[in-house]
Automatic annotation (TrEMBL):
Cellular component annotations (GO), alphabetically ordered: cytoplasm
Protein's GO biological process: oligosaccharide catabolic process
Name this polypeptide is given: Glucohydrolase
Primary localisation category: cytoplasm
GO molecular function: alpha-amylase activity
Organism annotation: Alteribacter lacisalsi
Domain Glycosyl hydrolase family 13 catalytic: 16-419
Family label: Belongs to the glycosyl hydrolase 13 family.
CDD domains (UniProt xref): AmyAc_SI_OligoGlu_DGase
Localization, UniProt: Cytoplasm
């Protein structure tokens, strides 16, 4: 029997804010802290407990803040440190905690540390980053960075290469150097002392590097191999970080930990893990090709998705938790991913919402998901901002795909699909800004927006509100929190059906992913309907006919 102590975040629901695109308060076209402050009431109304704030630190914004030039300051276009403190305090008043995005695998190349490190081979900070001599005039190995091109960039001034897992403007910090770790841990505690609720920890499994003088098996036509996270030894750094920082505070941490297998989750997440939970990728990466390529289009089936979810649910069976999510700032919109364009609607948005909200774990809602925002289709590469989109497009064309295929790739996969301005109302640019938005708004803001959702009691927004309330305080909260997960009809390509069982009680969640009726052999007699996305009550009985995109949650005695 595992004894788990109650935590303030046990039943929390997280809302992710991507500051650049959330709300612009001063008309410069870029979202800001004042914009977020002005919308706290909206988030409180939704019922969320935690805001995960994508990075707001000082940054040249090569990767929209995931390239930090000063960890102890706020980007001037977002606001000031005082405003950040105000946001923490104002959110607190509404029972909302802020968790910040901890980007410490790399800094910006504009960080003072890197500028010093680069200035000469003998600078005391030289070893804060990873520098190597050329080998036969080339980089020391064939690793390819996540955003394309070699992981190694040559510095003319000091005639060495420095290492970067992501863009060349994001040099990796050298975690082998104790001074670096100590500087980072000091900064982490400095933020925790300001009263934040914890951290989402960015790309953290990249901190331990592959051997420098070894080539890896190529996964691309150009002989390169994508950089690979979660190398042996990473845990030593993570344990030290936990001991020196997180463990001293009443907070929670959620790690973006690519490369961590389900078998390793116990080591990474939970009471004894390095973090409280990990963000799994398996259900998201279904459409990636080898080498993390977005092209050509890769088909996947509902069973692939269900299997990925189920695997994760099995792992946390004995306690522990996981991040439940369908969208974030790196992923396409879920409606666009799961539902044919002709069927994008409040009904289908509700089906997707219920499907993941009854799983075991902590649900994350990405801004705009609660009103059913969808992917955008820009007409040309120039309209895309995302560094990764530019890389994938160029790589696709270099590999011989047509520009049409490359553009289609962006329509499906670009991270800008999630980054178009939040759609507040039907006014110009969706009410995001009085000025010109940094990224074009999705033209469907006239139809899909917050104002409209708030005015319609049957909207997706209120459905999410209800889902949150069901998890937090309802007759079924405990089952949602602790019930055992089991999948039914696992072979079906049409429906996702699972149960959550706690003692005598059992919730059954049915979701029809198709546009037709599907008959399901499941005993639903004597059950109570907890939730349904149709107005007209379902016909319960020995079998049940699920209507197109119907989601139905019932509560009954476990048999
Ligand atoms: C993570 C972030 C992503 C960023 C990358 C580099 O994957 O979610 O947005 O580009 O790390 O920091
Ligand atoms: Ca602004």
């Amino acid at each position: 029997m595992i004894v788990v102590t109650a935590k303030w975040w046990d039943k929390a629901v997280v809302y992710q804010v991507y500051p650049r695109s959330f709300k612009d308060a001063n008309g410069d076209g870029v979202g800001d802290l004042q914009g977020i402050l002005s919308k706290l009431g909206y988030l409180q109304k939704l019922g969320i407990d935690v805001i995960w704030l994508s990075p707001v630190f000082a940054s040249p914004m090569k990767d929209n803040g995931y390239d930090i030039s000063d960890y102890r300051d706020i980007a001037s276009e977002f606001g000031t440190l005082e405003e950040m403190d105000e946001l923490i305090a104002e959110a607190d008043k509404r029972g909302i905690k802020i968790i910040m995005d901890l980007v410490i695998n790399h800094s910006s190349d504009q960080h003072e540390w890197f500028k010093e490190s680069k200035s000469s081979r003998t600078n005391p900070k030289r070893d804060w980053y990873i520098w190597e001599d050329p080998v036969d005039g080339r980089p020391p190995n064939n690793l390819r960075s996540i955003f394309g091109g070699s992981c190694w960039t040559y510095d003319e001034g000091t005639e060495q290469y420095y290492f970067h897992s992501f863009a060349k403007e994001q040099p990796d910090l050298n975690w082998e150097n104790p001074e670096v770790r100590s500087a980072l841990f000091g900064m982490v505690n400095w933020w925790l002392d300001r009263g934040i609720g914890g951290f989402r920890v960015d790309a953290i499994t990249f901190i331990k590097k592959q051997p420098v003088h070894e080539n890896q098996e190529p996964d691309s036509f150009d002989g390169t191999a994508i950089v690979s996270p979660n190398q042996p030894g990473v845990g030593t750094f993570l344990q030290e970080m936990k001991d020196e920082t997180f463990a001293k505070y009443d907070i929670f941490t959620v790690a973006e930990a690519p490369g961590v297998s389900s078998e390793e989750l116990g080591e990474f997440a939970g009471e004894d893990g390095y973090f409280d939970m990990v963000i799994s990728f398996d259900h998201m990466d279904l459409e990636l090709n080898e080498g993390a390529k977005w092209y050509p289009k890769k088909e996947w089936k509902l069973t692939d998705f269900k299997n990925a979810i189920t695997k994760d649910q099995q792992v946390i069976k004995e306690g522990g938790t996981t991040a439940l999510y369908m969208e974030n700032h790196d992923q396409p919109r879920s409606l666009s991913r799961f539902v044919a364009e002709k069927d994008h609607s409040v009904l289908t948005g509700k089906m997707l919402a219920a499907t993941y909200f009854f799983l075991k774990g902590m649900p994350y809602i990405y801004q705009g998901q609660e009103i059913g925002m969808t992917n955008v289709k820009f007409d040309s590469l120039e309209e895309y901002d995302d560094i990764s989109s530019h890389d994938q497009y160029t790589a696709a064309v270099r590999e011989g795909y047509s520009e049409e295929v490359a553009l289609d790739t962006l329509h499906r996969r670009s991270r800008d699909n999630a980054r178009t301005p939040m759609q507040w109302d039907a006014s110009e640019n969706g009410g995001f800004t009085e000025g010109t938005p940094w990224l074009k708004a999705n033209p469907n803001y006239s139809e899909i927006n917050v104002e409209k959702a708030l005015a319609d009691p049957d909207s997706l927004f209120y459905f999410y509100q209800k889902l949150i309330a069901l998890r937090k305080e309802s007759a079924v909260s405990d089952i949602i929190q602790d019930g055992t997960y089991e999948q039914l009809l696992s072979e079906s390509e049409d429906v996702f059906v699972y149960t959550r069982t706690l003692g005598e009680r059992r919730l059954v969640v049915f979701s029809n992913f198709t546009d037709s009726e599907v008959e399901v052999d499941a005993d639903t007699a004597d059950a109570q309907v907890v939730l349904n996305n149709y107005q007209e009550a379902p016909q319960l009985g020995g079998t049940i006919t699920l209507r197109p995109y119907e989601t139905l949650v019932i509560d009954r005695i476990a048999k």
